[in-house]
Amino acid sequence: MIKVKDLLKKKPQKAIFSVASTDSVQTVLEMMLANTIRSVVVLDQDQLIGIVSERDCALKVLFRNRKAAETTAADIMTRDVFTVSGEETIDACMLMMSSKNIRHLPVCANGKVVGMVSVGDVVKEVKKAAKAADLAGEGRVPIFAESVPRGLAVGAVMKVV
């Protein structure tokens, strides 16, 4: 299975989009819009202190009738950020994303954010691996055992479309 560091090398978007905790949600949303991204990391002196997603902006600002220009990233960011290293597998990312109900994983090395893996990145890689494995010649491949949560049947197949 492909490792996170290999996935990052393939991504066309290599930039890491970040904001300071004091930046307004307006600034966060403008960055997301300008770069067609759905989350940004919050850094303090190059250290990861949080993450802000579009969902955070909608649920914690818009639906609470707060003003984006007057609300800071620190006010709405998720502080306990799940991260991965470049050595993790895509299966490990898929398992973490599904079990923690998250869509973005900052990739860290030596205490610094070096990239971001999204659920879309993971799905694309799993789909590529599935097509490559194509066991029955009909687009049916096994679901990777390590990516299946405990208690679910292993040995299932998924249809690749």
Molecular structure report:
With about 160 residues, the protein is an alpha+beta fold. The chain contains six helices and seven strands. Helix 5 packs across helix 6 (about 120-135). The longest helix has 15 residues, at about 120-135. It is elongated, with a radius of gyration of 18 Å. It starts with a helix and ends with a strand. The model is unreliable at about 145-160 (pLDDT under 50).
Separation, N- and C-terminal Cα atoms: 20 Å
Strand order of the largest sheet: 1-2-3
User: How would you state the average pLDDT, rounded?
Assistant: 87
Give the ordered list of helices and strands: HEHEEHHHEEHEE
Q: Low-confidence parts lasting 5 or more residues at pLDDT below 50?
A: 147-161
Percent strand equals 15-25%
- What integer value in Å does the Rg equal? 18 Å
Helical amount:
25-40%
Which helices and strands occur, and which strands form pairs?
Layout: H1 4-10, E1 18-19, H2 25-35, E2 39-44, E3 47-53, H3 54-60, H4 73-76, H5 90-100, E4 104-109, E5 112-118, H6 119-133, E6 140-142, E7 157-159
Parallel strand pairs: 1-2
Antiparallel strand pairs: 2-3, 4-5, 6-7
List keywords for this structure.
elongated, disordered C terminus, 161 residues, alpha+beta, 21% strand
Quick structural gist:
The chain has 161 residues and is an alpha+beta fold. 34% of the residues lie in helices and 21% in strands.
